[in-house]
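tokens incoming
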């Protein structure tokens, strides 16, 4: 958890609700007595989410909103297990024992088709003109688009970046490689310090850190990830990229059965790795390690390298959006709060949660955080089509097989055929 702000006494009701709501186990149910207390004080909105790191932030923003608008927003932490199904049950199949239906909720962009088709995601009413290219990168807007409509407000995102030991790079007197070919050339010439065990190492077992190898050429639903007519998995460029990926195993022998993101990041902290692929959590972890003296180097973050001068890389990204429940009878008020949260409190998001806001214009004390937006702008979002719901699992398996030496063309052809059958 990050630093907390003190809440003044006028927000006692929300604090009381939070004490009841944020309990472990089954879906939380707020007692009728407390619900009545909230409703007597004014309108109430129920806001579901699954990431506990957001709890303090959402509680504070909700308190500010009550002070400004007189509307209670009650954050409800859910376990995340069968999350959309729980939203559906609370909205459609209500009983006396059901939890209070969410008026709005946070969800990853890859689930938006399912939510929209189930009536759980209403088209947003962007009355303040927030969802424009001036406020958000096109990646964020595409991520929350389904069928040409905005069905969520972009909230925060995750993507992968190139993390390097700045101290080592300065000592080498060489530029940070801009391509995978450049990394290989650097590795061939680098006179590594004794403690360095690998020039480049990353979690090859996780598709999130591998996808940039094929992200620019493997098309799954187009830019918005919602067009079943735009599927092109097996093509010449993708094969060429995956052949480069496979060849890297000859230079950087990484065991997919043993490597994890956490172990790789720890090896980077220990000074055993010069370059790796990281997500946004790495910044806080590195800063903590610098503060306690376990990371004694400087680090840098930049965009992921291309593969060669002729083959571009493109990272994967996930955008978490704020969705207005189509079954809510308070849709307008829910929309107003979603817009408020997106527009007016993005500056506080990273400091309070470690999440990076999807919108432009947010300043960060650590300039390395800004590098994530550069990558996010050029990234490709997770597709949201129901027919590709298991695509990432199958793609991860395919990458593992290719890394282990299986034939690229045969593996890719099999993947394309399977997804083609799923899409009908």
């Amino acid at each position: 958890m990050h630093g907390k702000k003190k809440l003044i006494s006028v927000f006692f009701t929300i604090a009381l609700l939070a004490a009841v709501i944020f309990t472990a186990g089954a879906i939380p149910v707020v007692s009728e007595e407390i619900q009545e207390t909230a409703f007597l004080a004014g309108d109430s909105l129920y806001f579901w989410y699954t990431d506990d790191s957001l709890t303090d932030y959402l509680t504070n923003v909700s308190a500010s909103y009550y002070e400004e608008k007189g509307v209670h927003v009650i954050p409800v932490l859910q376990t995340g297990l069968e999350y959309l199904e729980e939203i559906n049950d609370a909205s459609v199949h209500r009983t006396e024992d059901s939890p209070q239906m969410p008026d709005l909720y946070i969800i990853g962009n890859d689930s938006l088709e399912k939510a929209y088709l189930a009536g759980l995601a209403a088209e947003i009413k962007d009355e303040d003109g927030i969802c424009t290219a001036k406020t958000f990168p096109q990646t964020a807007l595409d991520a929350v688009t389904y069928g040409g409509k905005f069905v969520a407000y972009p909230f925060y995102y995750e993507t992968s970046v190139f993390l390097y030991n700045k101290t080592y790079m300065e000592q080498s007197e060489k530029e940070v490689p801009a391509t995978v070919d450049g990394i290989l050339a650097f590795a061939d010439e680098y006179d590594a310090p004794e403690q360095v065990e690998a020039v480049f190492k990353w979690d090859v077992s996780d598709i999130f850190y591998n996808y940039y190898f094929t992200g620019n050429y493997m098309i799954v639903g187009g830019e918005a990830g919602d067009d079943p007519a735009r599927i092109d998995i097996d093509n010449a460029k993708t094969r060429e990229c995956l052949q480069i990926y496979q060849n890297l195993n000859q230079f950087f022998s990484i065991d997919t059965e043993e490597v994890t993101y956490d172990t790789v990041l720890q090896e980077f902290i220990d000074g055993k790795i010069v370059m790796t692929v990281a997500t946004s959590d790495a910044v806080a972890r590195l800063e903590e390690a610098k503060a306690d003296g376990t990371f004694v180097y400087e680090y840098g973050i930049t965009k992921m390298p291309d593969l060669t001068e002729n083959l571009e890389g493109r990272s994967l990204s996930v955008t978490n959006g704020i969705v207005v429940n189509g079954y809510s009878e308070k849709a307008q008020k829910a929309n107003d709060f979603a817009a408020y949260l997106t527009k007016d409190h993005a500056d506080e998001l990273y400091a309070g949660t470690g999440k990076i806001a999807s919108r432009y214009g947010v300043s960060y004390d650590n300039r390395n955080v800004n590098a994530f937006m550069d990558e996010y702008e050029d990234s490709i979002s997770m597709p949201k089509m129901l027919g590709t719901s298991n695509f990432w699992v199958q793609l991860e398996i395919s990458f593992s097989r290719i890394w282990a030496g299986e034939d690229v063309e045969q593996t890719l052809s099999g993947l394309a055929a399977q997804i083609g059958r799923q899409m009908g």
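note: The chain has a mean pLDDT of 90.
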